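Aim 2, interim progress: modelling of the NAP-bound target.
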Amino acid sequence: MKIGIFGAGHMGGAMIKGWIKSEKIEPSNLLVRGGRRGTAQSLQKELGFQLTSETSDFKQMDIIFLAVNTPLILPILNELKGLVETSSIPIVSVSAGVSVKEMQEIMGDNYPLAQAIPNTPVQINEGMTGIVFAENIDKKAKETIQFSFDLLGDLVEISEDKIGIFGTLAGCGPAFVDVFMESLADGAVLNGMDRDMAYQVAAKMVSSSANLLLKTGKHPGELKDGVTSPGGTTIKGVTALEKEGFRYATINAIDTIMKS
Ligand SMILES: NC(=O)c1ccc[n+]([C@@H]2O[C@H](COP(=O)([O-])OP(=O)(O)OC[C@H]3O[C@@H](n4cnc5c(N)ncnc54)[C@H](OP(=O)(O)O)[C@@H]3O)[C@@H](O)[C@H]2O)c1
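Predicted structure of the complex, ligand included:
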């Protein structure tokens, strides 16, 4: 499969890394157009994909992704319109800020379009991507899009009205978890643990706790109850977190983004 991608920044670069790491997409089958700052050129030196500045080269692709900053999505779609409308190459935008309906206003109701929100773990093929397909998308186009995301981790189809909250939870969430892991490690360093070991232990503990929840299907409260013995040390730590409003701070982080 030949994949074309506009933008190789944080998200575009993460997707490119994931496809190459999957070993199902050769770097030579990835065509990238970047912007003025040269981010794509720097990444190309590391990963060896194809670079172009010609929009017309994207006519040869099986699928096209738009991973540019939100204000550029519709202008680039306008550039592509004349080139791809007869070939109906599926186009997927990964911007939270542009809906399928807005894309359809340029490409028409029957063009194979989708809006997807991936997250940065796509670069290690452990992404969690939400997707909204255009209503009239045909089976072949849908399968092509699904195949490309299956290489990057999990894909869930969601309704248009849930894309915002999906993006906040799955797309912004990794930063919250990063802050949490950094804080856990700081606490360990404060108590004498070596910094590198503290990050390693915190990260493994977070990923294995998440896997335990996913694999057992248990409620997170039940898993927490399993660690907190009566009068024990863990419940003292949980109490200290609650005293500082840990749950409220977390809920409010999601809510603040949704209200912004
Ligand atoms: N970051 C995330 O976790 C995340 C999650 C979900 C969705 N998204 C979405 O992904 C999109 C990109 O976000 P980002 O965080 O990756 O931003 P970013 O790091 O700033 O990357 C934007 C990329 O677009 C390139 N670009 C600029 N103008 C271009 C043009 N005219 N043609 C082709 N490429 C051009 C830039 O190239 P130069 O640097 O060379 O100028 C850069 O590589 C946004 O729409 C965002 O909403 C991001």
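The first helix runs from residue 10 to 22. The chain has a mean pLDDT of 97.
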